[in-house]
Amino acid sequence: MASAAPSTESGRPIDAQDVRRMFDRIAPTYDLLNGVLSFGLNRVWESRLVRSLPSDPQATVLDLCTGTGALVPRLARRCARVVAADISPQMLAQGRRRCSTVATCDWVEADAQALPFEDGIFDAVAVSYGIRNVPDRLQALREVLRVSKPGATLAILEFGQARNRLWRALFGLYARFVIPAVGALISGERAAYEYLPRTSAAFPCGEGFERLLKEAGWMPVKTTPLSGGVAYLYVARKANP
Ligand SMILES: C[S@@+](CC[C@H](N)C(=O)[O-])C[C@H]1O[C@@H](n2cnc3c(N)ncnc32)[C@H](O)[C@@H]1O
Tell me: the pLDDT tens digits for 197-207? Predict the structure, then answer.
């Protein structure tokens, strides 16, 4: 199955460097806007993701598309080492500052589509609100599989489309009008805050994403709609040989 890539205003498919530049620009106000626009719900969903990964004092966990490291302190309390990887140096810089007291985290600039890690080194992988921004999601999921140990758990939190029609319509209005307006006001980057809800609305959530996980070689374990399907938590496992 091909993973549809969003396009620029000129019609050219958005590539990973376009996405990197966009996140570099919004990095300084990213955390503030995240909290404001999600009414703090993001923290609740993220806690679900962290709890879906095994707690193991020996484990090394990859937080892919880590951004400003929202998951890092919570992951670090449950494992030996966190590797926080992201394509945007500015998001990583914010993350390093925000998580300066977390001594067990390495920060790595990396494209999810070509990870700079050896095969089979991670016990678990977390990805929050990152996968929909990757142009070739299938390739990224294959890369994550490659760098994971047999039996490793993958937990992905991503926006989707609410299942109830009224809720979907209300959230659609919020995403179409409120998110770009507030995003523009606080960050000055209206286009980024139009792109983010647009990609959420187009993301193949639920069974569609489970199919992509399977195609990449993952075994989906559990898919949980959150807040009526505004977001989804996917948990998958790498098979033991
Ligand atoms: C919406 S933010 C989420 C950040 C963080 N995980 C959180 O929960 O707040 C998406 C992140 O994915 C990163 N990203 C997008 N495409 C990427 C790619 N191809 N490889 C690695 N990181 C990528 C962006 O730079 C950005 O920091």
Answer: 888 888 999 99
